[in-house]
Write a structure and sequence with these properties.
The chain has 324 residues and is mainly alpha-helical. The protein has 6 helices and no strands. The chain is 47% helix and 0% strand. Helix 2 packs antiparallel against helix 3 and helix 4 runs antiparallel to helix 5. The protein starts with 8 loop residues before the first helix and ends in a 9-residue tail after the last helix.
């Protein structure tokens, strides 16, 4: 049901007729009332004038009362119109919100479906679609990162004693890159990137944010973690032969039981007393020793790259690589 302000041609015509009749009465009624009285012309004119003023006052009071009634009715009608408009707008906003939520859910479901496709190109499309959703929605960021971590664990599982793949597949490397450059501000307070028990040999993750990540029992042989943020990461019992840790932040990281790790790999990494090193390296990094004898990651001598030759060759542009 809709309400509108009264404004019809018929009511306007009636108002005009009433105003004309009121003017006619005001002008002619006093003369008619005084027609039978014997009085001087001057007195008659004065009485007619007073009568007209009195009638005009009466009609004016009536007009004001009528206007007040109309104004009250119009205000009530306007209030109903505004209430209906507000209700309609609220309903439209709710519908738009639920439509947007349904759209995001559909985008999420479509991207998830692409991860299991047999075509590499389609899987890559799903990975980058999920990355875009994670950047746009803080609420979906945590679950998407968990899904991507599970994708790596299922596609590149590894356990001690097994041979690792020469390098991560293209889709696994894409997921690792997405995880490494995610929007950190959206990370759940209790969330962790879970890549434990995965084969990440020769993965390329420079400047990746892996703070607090679960990397325990993972194969990180020859992985490039140059300048990566691994503060608080759990990497115990990880295989780290040749892992590039140049400039990596390892404050608070747990490297207990890591195999293949050498002091030279940690020479330019950022360590402190909270870094848990393998037992065979603790003597080389004795934080209880005087400050002058503690290893420093900010030495004044020029730093030379610790990249293995094979990894350094992979990092070059294809046109700059040595011929096979």
């Amino acid at each position: 049901m809709s309400s509108s302000l009264p404004s019809s041609p018929k009511s306007g015509f009636l108002s005009g007729v009433l105003i004309f009749a009121a003017i006619l009465v005001v002008m002619s009624a006093p003369a008619l009332w005084l027609r039978g009285f014997e009085t001087s012309p001057a007195a008659r004119a004065a009485l007619e004038s007073q009568g007209r003023i009195a009638l005009a006052g009466v009609f004016l009071a009536g007009v004001l009362a009528w206007c007040g009634v109309q104004l009250s009715q119009n205000l009530r009608s306007l209030g109903r119109v505004l209430e209906q408009g507000a209700a309609t707008q609220a309903a439209s906003e709710r519908a738009a919100y639920f439509s947007a939520q349904a759209g995001e859910t559909q985008r999420y479901a479509n991207a998830m479906a692409l991860l299991g496709h047999e075509s590499l190109e389609v899987r890559l499309g799903g990975i980058y679609a999920l990355e875009r959703l994670a950047r746009e929605s803080k609420a979906d960021h945590g679950p998407i990162i968990e899904v991507l971590g599970a994708f790596v664990r299922s596609r590149a599982p590894w356990s001690e004693g097994e041979s690792a793949a020469p390098r991560p597949s293209a889709d696994v490397q894409a997921v690792l890159s997405v995880i490494g450059r995610r929007t950190i501000e959206f990370d759940p307070s209790q969330g962790h990137v879970d890549l434990h028990g995965t084969g990440l040999a020769r993965a390329y993750l420079p400047f990746a944010n892996l703070a607090g990540a679960f990397l325990y029992e993972a194969n990180l042989e020859d992985a490039v973690l140059q300048n990566a943020d691994m503060r608080g990461a759990w990497a115990w019992r990880a295989r780290m032969n040749g892992t590039v840790l140049e400039g990596a932040h390892l404050e608070g990281a747990d490297l207990t039981g890591a195999s293949g790790l050498s002091a030279s790999q940690l020479k330019t990494a950022h360590l402190d007393s909270t870094t848990k090193l393998p037992e065979y390296l603790r003597a080389d990094f004795d934080w209880s020793a005087p400050a002058s004898s503690k290893p420093s990651s900010s030495a004044t001598e020029p730093k030379t790259s610790t990249l293995p030759a094979a990894v350094a060759e992979d990092m070059k542009l294809p046109s700059m690589r040595a011929p096979a």
